[in-house]
Amino acid sequence: MFLEQGIKSQNKFWLYLIGSILIIIASFIGQIPFSVAVLFKTFTGKEVMPTDNAAIMKIFEPNLTLFLVMISFAFAFAGIYFVVKYLHHQTLLSVTTARRKVDWKRIGFSFWIWTFFTLLSFVIVYLTSPENYVWNFKLIPFLILVVVGSILIPIQTSTEEYVFRGYLMQGFANLAMNRWFPLMMTSLIFGMMHIFNPEVAKMGYIIMIYYIGTGLFLGVITLMDDGIELALGFHAANNLIGALLVTSDWSVFQTHSLFKDLSEPSAGLDVILPVVVIYPVLLFIFSKKYNWTNWKEKLTGKINVVEISN
Q: Where does the chain cross the membrane (predicted)?
């Protein structure tokens, strides 16, 4: 079982706290190039030093900003690898899946099915309110976005999945010896991680339902499927297709996407619908394809100490 792979006598919970700090430090190291670039741009260009995150994100051309921001996730991913290997004496595979090897078909299926849902929902919204969107396509910047995004955005999303659905989920399992506590804690922390996103300032805290609900969905498919492959595919599609498809002045990243959203953001059905309708539909599709059973035990049951191997 996936959670049991991280439960070992030497894997005390305090080690996960230390490991989390080390991963955060690795991420901070990865932010140095962006910080240096901002300082250089400010002093050489005689520009005003940006005082908030929104201003920082607009100081460079969007593709360069995306590249510089995503570098930190590559460092964080390296941090995950070294923490898992040298602090917990596990393999990266053990925080990826309970299978003998990574199931790339699962990643691909999850990626393409969420790409389909994303494109379908955008078409519906666009046809409903076409006045809210303008064609934003510029060939060269878009092609650069495709290359940079296709390489670095999956690293960003994979890093988050390895931290939350892999590393921390196993860590909380060590602490609680059950399945519901890791599921709830990682979902809440994942959601709260987005609290400083500009979308929250624009739409209000109600959008946290979407963020926490997404974390819960990703946690459920991880526990039911005994691995993070489906979560990896979903998260990569969500961020990459989103970055390529539509941008706005109030989103975290401004990209050279195909469309630009001119509407004033507001939290409504678009926040609730994915959590209460679309995610359950995806759960049904996944459950039928991968023959999931015994939901209650896999999501809320206790971890059987007899199953734990050292």
A: 13-40, 66-87, 107-127, 139-159, 180-197, 203-223, 230-247, 267-286
Is there a domain that residue 43 lies in? yes
Question: Is the model's pTM score more than 0.70?
Answer: yes
Beta bridge partners of 247: 260
Which parts of the chain register pLDDT below 70?
Answer: 46-47, 267-268, 305-310
CB 209 within 8 A of CB 272: yes
| Total number of domains in the chain | 1
HEC string of 25-53 equals HHHHHHCHHHHHHHHHHHHHHCCCCCCCH
Residue 248's beta-bridge partner residues?
261
DSSP structural state of residue 95: G
Q: Which residue from 144, 36, 25, 26 is spatially nearest to 74, judged by alpha carbons?
A: 26
- Amino acid at site 99: R
Tell me: the pLDDT tens digits for 108-118? 999 999 999 99
CA dist., res. 115 & res. 191, Å (int): 22
